[in-house]
């Protein structure tokens, strides 16, 4: 069976749809036949024929409970249903813990964990109300599994997302809803380039040298293409992933080997 063709007549809601991984996920979902509602705090421009252009767009602050509720209501009004939720929106900032402010900690937790909770809650309400069925996919990080220097707030938020995934998977299994997490490794996006810059500045090392060091630590010897993360999303959202729930799938080139 070609699972890539199995999302016809399905509707997905993806947060962080304007960024590198988000655009790749939207494109892959479209290629698999899905209708896509996209949301992001920014309002990027899409060309008319851009495969990453969502069918419905919501400018969304996922840290606001009210914004999330309205975005889901508007998407449901426009598209009729939501079969797949992809919690992709995320924030990463670099800071040594001794210099970290409470505001930086709270902002990271609010975006990466509380925002995902708000979106999961709205998706669950809808999926249960229509009789069950669906898929929830949380984009976590290898940082939530093994830790990364100068990322304690980010690591904690992404580890929390894995806990949310496991607990919600048990709650939703009787309703035919799968809940899984994907942990990308260093993925070739503009956000990663910014992380390299901030880390090299903080550690007072050359940026290119720092990047080479990170890439050399990845067993496959390269950064992760966003498309590979997107392909994992499509699998977990498809009928081929229907018996996979409560799991963490690392798309990291072999960094985490469990």
Description:
With 258 residues, this protein is of the alpha/beta class. It has eight helices and seven strands; from the N terminus they run E-H-E-E-H-E-H-E-H-H-E-H-H-H-E. A seven-stranded parallel sheet has the order 3-2-1-4-5-6-7, with helices on both faces. Strand 4 (84-87), helix 3 and strand 5 (134-139) form a beta-alpha-beta unit. Helix 3 (102-129) packs parallel to helix 5 (152-172) and helix 6 crosses helix 7 (207-216). The radius of gyration is 18 Å and the shape is globular. The model has no long low-confidence stretch (mean pLDDT 94).
Q: Indicate the structural class.
A: alpha/beta
By DSSP, the count of extended strands is 7
Q: Look at the structure and give the mean pLDDT.
A: 94
Shape: globular
Total of helices: 8
Compact overview of the structure:
The protein is of the alpha/beta class and 258 residues long.
Question: What labels describe this entry?
Answer:
single chain; 7-stranded parallel beta sheet; 8 helices; 14% strand; globular
Write the layout of secondary structure elements.
Elements: E1 11-15, H1 20-31, E2 35-40, E3 56-59, H2 65-79, E4 84-87, H3 102-129, E5 134-139, H4 143-146, H5 152-172, E6 177-184, H6 190-203, H7 207-216, H8 226-237, E7 248-251
Parallel strand pairs: 1-2, 1-4, 2-3, 4-5, 5-6, 6-7
